[in-house]
Amino acid sequence: MTAPKTALILVDVINSFFLEGQPNFYPAALDVLGPLHDLLAAARAGGHVVVHAVEQHYPEFDDYEFKKLPRHHMEGALDAAFFGEFRPEGPREIVTRKRRFSAFFATDLALFLHEQRMERVIIAGVKTNVCIRASAQDAFAHGFDVVVPREATNSNRPHLAEASLEDIDRYIGRVVPLADALEMLA
């Protein structure tokens, strides 16, 4: 039996969450950088598709999301830029720009992954209870096996992160230890 074709989706690994002084920075976000690095290195070494899903809004235009949140992540702004080493490299990596929490909503990500015959997605990044959960829900709705490595996501609201991981594991996919996700990418 062959292993399912697997893609790694890194969600919002951008300055806003990881660079101190940026609008959505929270200190615990730094705890996921090591696991994210390990996942990215394993995906690259294994020749897997890597998706960098980043929230970016159009400068000078209204966005429905701004009814709930202040203006943020404008295309070309410091807070919307890739954090550190987490930028696309090579032909097996793509960028999906999103304007909502989910990497799948109103993007061509599901179409792209189906065209590449992907069966499983490993979703990691920030924030568990918002963008990770929304992306996992939509990946499931599009027919992908969803895996979320526990150590590779968190939130500034830990109780909501835990509740989201419980729901993901119960209804949407699997929440696994980092080592299991790394093995899927080996």
UniProtKB/TrEMBL annotation:
<dbReference type="InterPro" id="IPR000868">
    <property type="entry name" value="Isochorismatase-like_dom"/>
</dbReference>
<protein>
    <submittedName>
        <fullName>Nicotinamidase-related amidase</fullName>
    </submittedName>
</protein>
<dbReference type="InterPro" id="IPR036380">
    <property type="entry name" value="Isochorismatase-like_sf"/>
</dbReference>
<keyword id="KW-0378">Hydrolase</keyword>
<feature type="domain" description="Isochorismatase-like">
    <location>
        <begin position="6"/>
        <end position="177"/>
    </location>
</feature>
<dbReference type="GO" id="GO:0016787">
    <property type="term" value="F:hydrolase activity"/>
</dbReference>
<dbReference type="Pfam" id="PF00857">
    <property type="entry name" value="Isochorismatase"/>
</dbReference>
<dbReference type="InterPro" id="IPR050272">
    <property type="entry name" value="Isochorismatase-like_hydrls"/>
</dbReference>
